[in-house]
Amino acid sequence: MSNTKNLFDKVWDLHTVKTLESGQDQLLIGLHLIHEVTSPQAFEMLRDRGLTVLFPERTIATVDHIVPTLSQARPFADDLAEEMMTAIEKNCREFGVTLLDVNDSRQGIVHVVGPEQGLTQPGMTIVCGDSHTSTHGAFGSIALGIGTSQVAHVLATQTMALGRPKVRQILINGELGPGVTAKDITLYVIRKLGVQGGVGYAYEYAGDVFDRMSMEERMTVCNMSIEGGARCGYINPDQTTVDYLKGRPFSPEGAAFDKAAQWWLSLASGPDAKFDDVVEFDAADIEPTVTWGITPAQSVGISETLAPISSYPEDEQTLIKEAFRYMDLKENQPIKGQKIDVAFIGSCTNSRISDLREAAKVVEGRHVSEHVKALVVPGSQLVRKQAMEEGLDKIFTDAGFEWREAGCSMCLAMNPDKLVGNELCASSSNRNFKGRQGSPTGRTLLMSPTMVAAAAINGCVSDVREMLNTVPV
Amino acid sequence: MNKIESITGTCIPLLLDDIDTDRIIPARFLRCVTFEGLGEHAFEDDRQQDPDHPFDKPQYQGASILLGGRNFGCGSSREHAPQSLIRWGINAIIAESYAEIFFGNCTSLGVPAVCASRATLETLNQTIQNHPEQEITVDLLTMKIICGEQQFDCTLPENARAALTSGTYDFLAQLLKSTDEIKAQAAAVPYFTSFA
Ligand code: SF4
Predict the structure, then answer these.
(1) Which of A172, A291, A178 is nearest to A221 (CA)?
(2) Residue among A126, A433, A443, A444 with most chain B CBs within 10 A, to mutate
(3) Which atom of ligand 1 is nearest to the CA of A411?
(4) Of residues A77, A71, A152, A61, the one with CA closest to residue A109
(5) Which residues in chain A have Cβ-Cβ distances shorter than 8 Å to B46?
(6) What integer pLDDT is reported at residue A116 of this predicted model?
(7) What ipTM was estimated for this complex?
(8) CA A239 from chain center: how many Å?
(9) Rounded to 5 degrees, what angle do the CA atoms A135, B101, A226 make?
(10) Mean pLDDT, chain A, integer
């Protein structure tokens, strides 16, 4: 095989069934993940046309968006949520799709469950009716968010029509400073390249910063590729990837695993791989980062002040002005010290066991500020169980955090967990859009889970680095 | 599928950048198993906060073409966003640029989402503000926007244009034709056969 091909091209070519008249490729899909919000209409389309699911064993369903996190007991208090649950149960039963329901110990946020179960593997094409499907790219797969019509296409044909994106390599080498996490890296990239900078591209994240990362950190980075406008993001598989997958329920076993591992590693972009574009950053330039506005690119390093409107290009000033108005923040003010009302640790970006462990280190022996409502929502029931075995739940609850059941929760507030009025929330999630966290006037500051923990303790946006090596008093 | 060669109608101006899908249809309205009824909630939160929101103005009711800014439809992949616009009455969108998944969703639902320059958008915006009754045509055969005496260029990626104008934008029918090839391709992908 020519070694100028990058991973994206190798995987895409392997899955191309044919080129359609429109010029798009008909792409074979290896893993289809579904959840309760974007699937019911797709199953209805199948029913309307009298179609069945072509490869039912290649689709796996879970429930996450609407699931209440105080108690998952059925029936849910919210009739609409209950109706959606009944619909996905019925659809999965009728079409022969496996469902990890609330009463299944493997239930959780779809992008946490896939990797945890070993469903997500290198070299796969993975789709889900959810934009943060890009998370799964951490394994060296092509992982794409799709709309409901396409969910129906994949159910019926295990393929979809798609134009091939270009590939941009984002190269970050060097040493990260203390307290700088995967979340800060992804926020930094989006800040530098803009929310639209990735349109038309798949992102390959490469360089020693990513090589050193755990799979969980890689997932955090790939998760937010979509916030930078990219179609997807991925990291080349290496020994870390192989080690993570060994022994997972859906991973190959025995001789098949060795064969798989060899194939996975062979897919990585080699040193001569070609890219349509390469962008380079220096790890040392990245600080713990916080968004202050209403798009994920509107962010600053924790030690910076908010740049005045006049410093932005003229065609951006209307949006920046609106961001200041909506967020009720002032030009030239520091972000550090900004009082918060709510702290949320959760979402498919940052709700894995390592996120909870790191946040717990900041929280341990301290107490949540009196005026802050703080909650931890584990990404899956297995993460929750693991955390409880390690006593993390106790650290959080002793400190005054609420400890919840697994789900999307306040990331988009389709369940009862919502901001009220114009509350300001320090959040480990991925979107700070207006109204995202359930109140039409609610405000979100995105940051890493350790930075959320620090903000919860101090009652205001804080520099977690000042708390890392100090013993709580 | 109908061939979609041109869309004519009055226009509703919303010349703002980075309009995300959560603003188009706030998440709390997604607690549903069909797309019915989403139309009335399009831009619900924005409308509540802005008494002058175009979606509430009498002169724009009945509009079928939406004028947007840069990076329109960013955020979620949920088809609820274009579905709510369609159900509100939108049949075409003119904007400076789009988020990709949103664009793909629009195309597969038969809604042309064309790009126009900022200057064109501003001229159209002005015209519509002054004459909300002015009909506009988005012509996909000539890739022109026709507004009274004025004509402007617009763009649409060729594959989307071809799919719309030939009535093949619902890809399902095409995809279904290749079941044998799909199965053959699957047999060549190592993990489909469990690395046997
Ligand atoms: S956690 Fe948030 S971003 Fe992730 S899948 Fe759930 S709602 Fe979407």
Answers:
(1) A172
(2) A433
(3) 2
(4) A61
(5) 434
(6) 98
(7) 0.92
(8) 22
(9) 35
(10) 96
The correct CATH number of B6-193 out of 3.40.50.300, 1.10.1760.20, 3.20.19.10, 1.10.10.10 is 3.20.19.10
Q: pLDDT (tens digit, 9 = 90+) per residue, A238-282?
A: 999 999 999 999 999 999 999 999 999 999 999 999 999 999 999
Identify from B106, B171, B178, B194 which residue to disrupt to test chain A contact, counting A C-beta atoms within 10 A and taking the largest count.
Answer: B171
The vertex-A407 CA angle with A404 and A412, nearest 5°, equals: 110
Mean pLDDT confidence for B166-173: 89
Q: Which of A40, A195, A414 sits opposite B71 (nearest CB)?
A: A195
Write b or e for each residue in A426-442: b if 16 or more Cβ atoms lie within 10 A of its Cβ, otherwise e: bbbbbbbbbbbbbbbbb
Q: Are strands A25-28 and A159-162 parallel, antiparallel or unpaired?
A: antiparallel
**How far apart (Å, rounded) are the C-alpha atoms in residues B12 and A428?**
36
Task: Please report, for chain B, the start and end positions of each structural domain, with discontinuous segments joined by +.
Answer: 6-193
In this structure, the residue with its CA closest to atom 1 of ligand 1 is A347
Q: Which of A22, A160, A162 sits opposite B162 (nearest CB)?
A: A22
Q: Which two tokens stand for residue A390?
A: 């390690």
Chain-chain contact of A440 with B157 (C-beta, under 8 angstroms): no
- Residues A347, A294, A429, CA angle at the centre, nearest 5°? 10
A22 closest CB neighbour out of B76, B79, B168: B168
What single-letter amino acid sits at A117? Q
Using 50, 70 and 90 to split pLDDT, how confident is the model at A470? Answer: confident
* pLDDT value for A469: 74
CA distance B163 to chain A (A): 6
Is the whole model's pTM more than 0.90, yes or no? yes
Question: Tens digits of per-residue pLDDT, A102-132?
Answer: 999 999 999 999 999 999 999 999 999 999 9
- Pick A146's closest partner by Cβ from B27, B77, B163: B77
Looking up tokens 């609409």 gives A80
The β-bridge partners of A183 are: none
Residue A173, both tokens: 């080498």
Say how far apart CA B134 and CA B123 lie, in whole Å.
Answer: 13
CA A265 to chain centre: 24
Q: Does A379 touch chain B (CB under 8 A)?
A: no
* H or E element in which residue A16 lies: strand A16-19
pLDDT band at A471 (very low <50, low <70, confident <90, very high): low
- For the cut 80, the answer to whether the pLDDT of residue A99 exceeds it is yes
Residues lining ligand 1, Cβ inside 6 A: A 64-65, 109, 111, 130, 132, 347-348, 408, 411-412, 429-430
Q: ∠B187-A143-B81 over CA atoms, to 5°?
A: 120
Question: With contacts defined as CB-CB under 8 Å, which chain A residues touch B157?
Answer: 163
Cα(A444)–Cα(A411) distance, rounded to whole angstroms?
A: 10
Strand partners, A281: A172
Inter-chain Cβ pairs, chain A and chain B, closer than 8 A: 211
B117-163 pLDDT, tens digit per residue, is 999 999 999 999 999 999 999 999 999 999 999 999 999 999 999 99
The interaxial angle of helices A392-399 and A353-363, nearest 10 deg, is: 40
